[in-house]
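re: that complex we talked abt at group meeting.

here r the seqs, copy pasted straight from the sheet so there may be weird spacing, ignore it
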Amino acid sequence: MVLLQPDPFLNELTSMFEKSSEKGSVWVTLKRSSLKSKAQRNKMKTAGSPIEYRCLVRATDGKKTISTSVGIKDHQRFQASYATILKAHMTALKKRERKDKKKVMGTDNKEGDSKKKPKKA
Amino acid sequence: MVYITSWDEFVEKSVQLFQADPESTRYSVKYRHCEGKLVLKVTDNRECLKFKTETAQDAKKMEKLNNIFFTLMARGPDADISEAAGKEQAEAQPTKKGRGRKQ
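got the structure back, here u go
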């Protein structure tokens, strides 16, 4: 498991998406963690200090796993970049539910079927 | 595996699950480009909620959910969720006492 800084993690995530575009999947998991062992956490609790939690993000393509931990300060920025990456890569999803599937117009239909049928008066 | 069909129900239940046990709840996303499928899973190792989709519309909703989870996880389970601010304002804002509007 490779632990990276948020920015290199995002770069690796991008390349993972690109590699898995033909076949394979990409898993991304989000979990809250303080990154400290239970003993340390208990000590901090008794000492009265607030435990700083971070968001652990893990990504894998089935073979390689990468991870990063995002704190409160970085999370807004990370969130924005992460959203951009997802939007850029999740292109295989259907744009719109096709109501009539009579004719198969081919596999790649971005805006194939006429959205607005021109009404001929 | 419990597949939930309604998006809103999935969001509500997963947030509840997280707030009940923030230590062990995790949120996973699996994307398969070759099949054009997206599956979301939220579990606390006891209960599991899943949502599956093939539409880009749901992917946008998933992005919002990502934001919610990032906020919850980084700031704490009691953090203000930006989406919650839009829908549920009942808890946050108590009834405002009018300052003598009624004449």
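couple things i noticed - The longest helix of chain A spans residues 72-89. Chain A touches chain B at residues 17, 20-32, 53-55, 70-72, 75, 78-79, 82-83, 86-87, 89-97 (CB under 8 Å).
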